[in-house]
Amino acid sequence: MKAESELVIDAVGLSVAYPNGVQAVDGVNFQARAGEFIALLGSNGSGKTTLIKALVRLLKPSRGTIRIFDKELDVWPAKELYQRVGVVFQNPDDQLFASTVEEDAAFGPRNLGLTQAQTLERVEQALLSVGALSLRGRQVHELSFGEKKRVAVAGALAMRPAILILDEPTAGLDPAGERRMLELLGRLNGEEGLTIVMATHYVDLLPLFARRLCVLNRGRILKTGSPADIFGDGRLLSDADLRLPHVAGLMEEFKRCDGAPIEGLPLTTVEARRELRRLLPALEGAHDER
Amino acid sequence: MSDLFLGAQAPRTGTLARLDPRTKLIGALSLSGLSLCSQNPAPAFAVAGVCLGGLFFIGLPWRMIRPRLTALLGMTAVMVLLQAWAARSLSQALHLGARACGCASVLLLLGLLSPADQVLAALRWMAVPEIFLEIVSLMHRYAFVLIGRARDIVAAQWVRLGYCGIKRSLSSMAVMEGALVIGSVDQAFAVFDAMHVRGYTGRMPASPLPEMSPADWAAAALAPLVCLAAYVKFGRIGA
Fold first, then answer.
1. A126 and A39 together in one domain
2. Which residue in A110, A246, A278, B14 is a FRET match for A204, CA 20 to 30 A apart?
3. Which residues from A are below 8 Å from B209, CB to CB?
4. Nearest of B6, B24, B119 to residue A103 by alpha carbon
């Protein structure tokens, strides 16, 4: 049996209330293990961003405990905590505060007190891994939205974190940009072993990358499970104001309306194609009979 | 509009653009000093002429020079008119206008020749207080965000007839300004969070400048001397 990897985030009974009384997160238990790719899935206002901010100590929980690696969140010195946990915010303009791409990516390493050579090495590597090395000399205000998003990820990567937490990394990107961003995160997770926790409400490409989904609604986690578990639960999706990925929606229609004998629910185009190829002879047969 | 101010636009291969930012800053300060200290308007106008000529020399297209020149001349004209009206002295007004024109031209040329981060690094080398530089650096970055946001708000108001008539225009502008202030406060908190999670502890780190070459040192030494000589020769006339 494969041994479970180290628990890197362990939030128990977490609640966060805003001063106006809104209970944005309510009694959430959330765990992440080293090397996992987890998506916090929920509609707007479900508490994803609040949960993320609490996990990185930008908001103080009203109840509950959070452990990052082997220590309580509160006892981590900021310098050590943010070397382990990188954060990428939803709006890249909030995060890119230097005038050039290189300066911005160097912000974190310089704050860590690294030498100029070490800083440049980290900047180069971070920009290379997000495919933005060619942008290094550019002014931040000249970048496109997609480029800004990638440079924001590079800024977090330059801290060499073990955990990368992203708030809506694909929001505002075109379909190609969305796929590129998720492929980048998939690569960072698969090849570099980063633990990825991302908040999102985009469902179409998630089954390709995320191994575990946590569905949030009104500040509570409704269910945690694999993409098949989550998308196989129609009632859950309806309660959380979510939908199936388009491919899965189509296959579900085949199953429900045409009585196609589909096994399980294909969530990706590859799975759907495999299933359709298996079904085609049966469908052709049905057509002939009619 | 963001082209109007800030940000190096000059080809970076040009002779002036390749100078060390410290040399450029020393040159700019010397020229500004000459403009401000001269007892007659001629040296300041000469500085303005040299700098505006420099804009052509560095290969900037006319379409980029034109709005800057218009802004500069407009600003000078307003100052001259105000001073002539207040002090009732055309010569004093011209002198003030010349100083403003000279200094603004110097800043314009410097801004077009050097990226903001280099100018800030040079200012840091000159021991300008860190807090001031940090604020300027953030202002420079977020000026563009603010302009973009203002443009979006104006467009949204425009398509809903927010600028039909003077009264409605004034009201729309006031709403836009209010929205910008509130948005800026929100953004300031978000930016602080983003800085905090990347290790910010109250001091913005800066990139070190490379060693200055002997040619840069020579140019840096020469600029104040030339300006001093110009002041002695031409600037004291009229004292």
1. yes
2. A278
3. none
4. B119
Residue of chain A minimizing CA distance to B195: A95
Domain identity same for A102 and A205: yes
* A273: containing domain: 244-290
Chain B partners of A56 at a C-beta cutoff of 8 Å?
Answer: 197
pLDDT average, residue stretch A21-40: 94
Using a CB-CB cut-off of 8 Å, the residues of chain B touching A58 are 193, 196-197
pLDDT at B2 over 50: no
Residue A11 forms part of a structural domain: no
| Residue A282, token pair as written in the block | 């049966």
Residues A146 and A261 in one domain: no
CA A209 to chain centre: 9
Instruction: Indicate if ipTM > 0.90.
Output: no
**Rounded Cα distance, B150 and B146, in Å:** 6
Chain A residues in contact with B2 by the CB 8 A cut-off are 141
Tens digits of residue pLDDT in A206-257: 898 999 999 999 999 999 999 999 999 989 999 999 999 999 999 999 888 8
Residues B131-174 have pLDDT tens digits of 999 898 888 888 888 998 898 888 888 877 788 888 888 988 99
Shared-domain flag, residues A261 and A151: no
Residues 184-213 of B with CB under 8 A from A: 187, 190-191, 193-201, 204-208
Query: In CATH, what number is assigned to the domain containing residue A211?
Result: 3.40.50.300
Q: Please tell me which residue of chain B has the smallest CA distance to A94.
A: B191
Q: Tell me the three state secondary structure of residue A218.
A: coil
pLDDT tens-digit map of A144-157: 999 999 999 999 99
Three-state secondary structure along B54-86? HHHHCCCCHHHHHHHHHHHHHHHHHHHHHHHHH
| 8 Å CB contact of B190 and A155 | no
Q: How many domains does chain A have?
A: 2
B195:A53 CB<8 A: no
